[in-house]
Amino acid sequence: MMPFDTAETCASARQAFGGGAYHRQTPATLPDLLATLPEIAGHLGGDPSDWLIAEISDGNMNLVFAASGPNGSVVVKQALPYIRVIGESWPFPLERVRFEHETLQIYARLVPGRTPRVLHYDPELAIIVMEHLTPHLVLRQGLVEGRVFPLLADHIGSFLARTLFFTSDLFLSTRGKRQLMARFEGNEELCATTEEVIFRGPYAAVSLNRWTTPHLDAAVAAMRADHELKLAATELKLVLRTSTEALIHGDLHTGSLMVSEADTRIIDSEWARYGPMGFDLGAVFGNLLLAYFSQPGHATSYNDRTSYQEWLLATMQEIWETFETELRYLVMEHGGELFPSALFEQPSMAASLINSRLRAILSDTIGFAGAKMIRRIIGISHVEDMETIRDPSVRAQCEAKALAVARSMMIQRHAYRDIHALAAGARSASTGNAI
Amino acid sequence: MMPFDTAETCASARQAFGGGAYHRQTPATLPDLLATLPEIAGHLGGDPSDWLIAEISDGNMNLVFAASGPNGSVVVKQALPYIRVIGESWPFPLERVRFEHETLQIYARLVPGRTPRVLHYDPELAIIVMEHLTPHLVLRQGLVEGRVFPLLADHIGSFLARTLFFTSDLFLSTRGKRQLMARFEGNEELCATTEEVIFRGPYAAVSLNRWTTPHLDAAVAAMRADHELKLAATELKLVLRTSTEALIHGDLHTGSLMVSEADTRIIDSEWARYGPMGFDLGAVFGNLLLAYFSQPGHATSYNDRTSYQEWLLATMQEIWETFETELRYLVMEHGGELFPSALFEQPSMAASLINSRLRAILSDTIGFAGAKMIRRIIGISHVEDMETIRDPSVRAQCEAKALAVARSMMIQRHAYRDIHALAAGARSASTGNAI
Known about the structure:
By secondary structure, chain A is α+β, with helices and mostly antiparallel strands. Helices cover 51% and strands 11% of the residues of chain A.
């Protein structure tokens, strides 16, 4: 039967577009809006005229404001009907805020405390008001600054294992999974954009593509002529399109993580979709490797960043090991849907299936990580890890090494024995000159 | 954005259940219903009192009537709110008729003339009135009778290539595929039933399971204790659950095919869903192999059926070769979505991707075929190919050989070099005694 969720989904979709009440917020309009929300007004304290509103938009997509009053502060995120950093020439569905809200609710249940607390959701205004995280900073910024986050690997590895397991067929019944999938229906615009900017755009003559020129001109030309590489990109796109392994965050780069010494929070889940587990793992690893290869560009006379590079590789390996250990535990503890005890008396059976799944997830992960590294160096959207390197020839050197490793990660993704082989590959590529 | 189709889907779902106008048809009630449908009344001719209504229900699920008048005849198929051969103790959603109707419309566009023409669709009564196929018979019955259908392989191979290609990511855009998938949402009850009766039920102590006893008692006990086999069944279930490769028929056994010397029609598509291409191919091959192993049970003094067995294997191989050839052609001609010429100047690139896809599809196909063979011999639902063999010891001999081959098909599915290796395996298993 048609799951009830879907009727709801249809309704809330109409609501999200029907209203016409949508208008873009500004620091001038926000106090009036927040004043109508007692819980938030109380949290800020004082009088709306006392509130300080600052726009702190950071990502590519949305408007973000920090609102602070005498007693406290909140973050207000509003989706724009187009991609913020590109403008109205690239319209984009407001409804993405619904997928972000759905995911924040699901994550709050599966990994309590790993996401910002939602204080208010308004589908018509495409607004989510949430907890203001402090003293957190965006992980990517921390990596550029060379800061160590001792709990990061444990938090992320566990977040990945729990959110991917509990939304997958390893745990959910067919009915339960179908009904959860239905709540993410209508996200094809976001799916199509992801597939375009990662798997096609970087290899085609797309006007918004850019790269460190002239240093990387030859490398870019070679990649556009590299059929083996483009075939790997197409195979990976097909995996993303045809796999409904789990509910994935869909954009889990180091800009979607807010961190402090003691805490890690996952934000910006509007790209959530059903897809292969390796897509989320690959986003994390690809961006950690971008940070790794960018470090020489941030070296100073008193810190050559080489030990920090080792921390980055150790973190990547520890994330995988935490994910693997916890996934095995979850399958044994909660895998009864796929491994009913009536069928499998011995847990060893579940273990052998999970071994072959982990093998496949690792290959996907390495391939997706490579694709994400390449697209951030020669595609539309770049990363501060590299962009903040002032000297273009130094930056190009870092980028060229990352591109070389990323290429082999995509083409050879099935050949990496384990996560340590990936770390070793990055380490050996980081020495010497790439161009 | 929420595709418009989905709003429609929600609406028609409500319609299909809201009405309460549903009532079970009988030969007594049908003339009044058909009389209200001018096109059909005209097609039958004469007066409703002249019409002959015969119930011809054959499958497990639905009521089927043949209505004939002076000028012509039609078939009326009505879904029951439970599984017909089991009864009200196993309720089953009437909405499945909507999935059948959706699929019939899609097939009519993609493979004109390969499905019965739909004359009337009534979601409230869960009825489809369709062309009465004559002189067609159910393929399974033809195979029991040892009849040759010279065009069958070409028709089925082409049907599979076209319906699977044009509903897959090899052809559709992300948006187009997502919107087509949305039309099959709400089918989780059918999906869950398929997964239960094929991948779990046969290996568990399910009360409705049956087999030729006592002859197969030991074989059944061995299979229920066979962890390697149950692991393969679980892996295959996971492939079915997580792959959205294409819109599959979902129940393409030889009872879902109506054939004549010159024609082949596909019926009973109510199980349609997005899933792996190999599931439809596997259904065809598994049932052809059941027919193959059943032939000694139908041998007579003047026809030992050995040459007919060779025709069955030749047909299986020709279906695969037709599927493979046509799929390659379709990718080259219409694969621009996945292989934009801006990226792939040489068709050789598309060829190498399709080679790896075909390799994976063949493994899935062989695994699913094996699972379907086993479930038809030791599970809830059996096939006339075997059931019509009177002598239980002869029948058990045929079934035991089929079980042995099916087991290796599931466990060794990645090891079969090509479709001919599968035929060779069946041929060698058919000699000697299995029990």
